[in-house]
Amino acid sequence: MGLDNPIHLALLLMILLLVFGAKRLPEMGRSLGHGLRGFKDAVSGEAPIHRLDAAEQDEPTAATGEQVSSERIAAAGR
Length: 78
Fold this sequence. Notes:
By secondary structure, the protein is mainly α. The chain folds into two domains: 1-46, no CATH class; 49-78, no CATH class. Helix content is 60%, strand content 0%. It has helices at 6-20, 24-44, 54-57, 70-76. It is flat. The protein starts with 5 loop residues before the first helix and ends with a helix.
C-alpha cells in the first residue's frame, strides 16, 4: 500500500501538479537539489565547486578571447 505501485506515483504527481502548478514544480525541484547538494558538501567537508579563485575566474572565454572578470560573472548570474 506504499508508493511501490506506479498508479500511486502517477496519482501523487497529478495532485502535486494541481496544487503547485506546472511552472512552480521545476523551481521547487531545483531548489531542493541545491539544498541537498549544499547539505552533502557541508557534511563531507568539501568546498563547493562553483567557488573558484580570483585567478581562475579571470580566464579568457573560448568564443571571444576577452578577459572575464569575477564581477561580470557575478552580474551575469543574477
